[in-house]
Specification:
CATH superfamily of the largest domain: TPP-binding domain
Oligomer: single chain
CATH topology of the largest domain: Rossmann fold
Shape: elongated
Order of helices and strands: HEHHHHHEHEEEEHEHEEH
Largest sheet: 6 strands, parallel
Number of helices: 10
Number of domains: 2
Distance between the termini: 20 Å
Strand content: 15-25%
Radius of gyration: 18 Å
């Protein structure tokens, strides 16, 4: 990244009264979390798109839960990377709202607080009977965990294919996209709705949009695109201004 481009974008960040961030799988990939969708996302004989649905859970909850037990165990070995921690450092100096499409919980582990988990969090469990939600990081859950209050089957508190985003989280995300003076879009193709529209909402509302990704995906929206790994690009962008 040219030094003059770094300096210019750093000034944009430092002078912003508020920042909105949207993150996707790319930021977690730098922590070793694999992408579960697409041809490279096969688990046993299934794809994520075949397991992460209400219909799959109704038809074969054991198979779905087996996949989530495996995911929870794998992600428990991963740690936040410099991109996660850079966002925490920015938030110490400038009001920052972080919208994430990831369900791995690494932003919380890193210390991010003003966080909207658009697609939920696999470390939370939701009862299919009484709808109670509780965090549970145990790696020793029963294959089919049951609610301690009503004995109904528990499920991961995540948004599956075919399910709607929590309306409150969607409203908060849209408002944050409208209000941030700078928007950082990190590690996402921004191809899945409704998150795909957030950068455009920010741009229309007057925000300066910065994309950080291994391949450009927001050519028609981003004011600046930094091509590279999030764990390298974001610390370089924040530099000595933060931390």
């Amino acid at each position: 990244m040219p030094l003059n481009q770094i300096a210019s974008l750093q000034k944009k960040l430092v002078s912003a009264r508020s920042i909105t961030v949207l993150t996707g799988a790319g930021i977690s990939a730098d922590s070793g979390v694999p992408t579960f969708r697409g041809e490279g996302g096969l688990w046993k004989r299934f794809k994520a798109e075949e397991l992460a649905t209400p219909e799959a859970f109704d038809a074969d909850p054991e198979a779905v839960w087996e996949w989530y037990h495996w995911r929870r165990g794998m992600i428990s070995t991963k740690h936040p990377n410099p991109a996660h921690t850079s966002l925490v450092e920015i938030a110490k100096k400038i009001p920052l709202t972080l919208i994430t499409q990831n369900v791995d919980g690494l932003h919380t582990v890193a210390g991010s607080r003003n966080l909207i988990e658009l697609h939920g969090n696999l470390w939370r469990l939701r009862c299919t009977g009484c709808s109670r939600v509780a965090e549970n990081r145990s790696l020793h859950l029963p294959l089919l965990p049951k609610c301690p209050f009503c004995s109904a089957l528990l499920r991961p508190d995540v948004v599956w294919f075919g399910e709607a985003i929590d309306p409150a989280n969607l409203e908060r995300s849209i408002n944050a996209s409208r209000e941030g003076e700078v928007m950082l879009v990190i590690g996402t193709s921004a191809a899945v709705q409704p998150a795909a529209s957030f950068a455009s909402i920010a741009k229309t509302s007057g925000a300066f949009v910065i994309e950080i990704n291994t391949v450009p995906a927001l050519e028609t929206v981003a004011d600046a695109s930094l091509i590279g790994r999030a764990s390298e690009m974001l610390p370089e962008l924040t530099g000595s201004y933060f931390g």
